Amino acid sequence: MNANPSFEKLRAELAAAIKHARSVTGISQEQLALTAEVDRTYVSQIERQVANPSLQVLARLADTLDAEIKITFQLRERPALRLATDT
Questions:
Q1: How far is 81 from 84, CA to CA, in rounded Å?
Q2: Domain enclosing residue 14, as ranges
């Protein structure tokens, strides 16, 4: 297992989002896999946080679920660095 907490959090959020979207749309893992052209066991692995899908697979899963992928990439707040000339 990866020891990076932010990675694990993202993977958990992705798994929950896919599982929720499947539940809301009434699509089984098998139906999702067939339409998105991936193996059913792969969908299960994604939902159990075992597999890490590529962006291409995510896009196919989202299309099948009629969902939109939104990516936010923000820099964390950091204190300003003081330069030697700032004295």
A1: 10
A2: 5-64
Tens place of pLDDT for every residue, the chain, 87 residues? 557 888 999 999 999 999 999 999 999 999 999 999 999 999 999 999 999 999 999 999 999 999 999 988 888 888 877 777 765
- Would you say how long the chain is, in residues? 87
**Both tokens of residue 6?**
């932010």
83, burial (CB in 10 Å: exposed 0-12, middle 13-18, buried 19+): exposed
Sequence-distant (6+) residues with CB within 8 A of 12 are 49
Q: Residue 1 in 3-state DSSP? A: coil
Residue appearing with tokens 């679920």: 65
Q: What is the tally of structural domains in the chain?
A: 1
The reported pLDDT for the residue numbered 37 is 97
Residue 32: give its domain's CATH number. 1.10.260.40
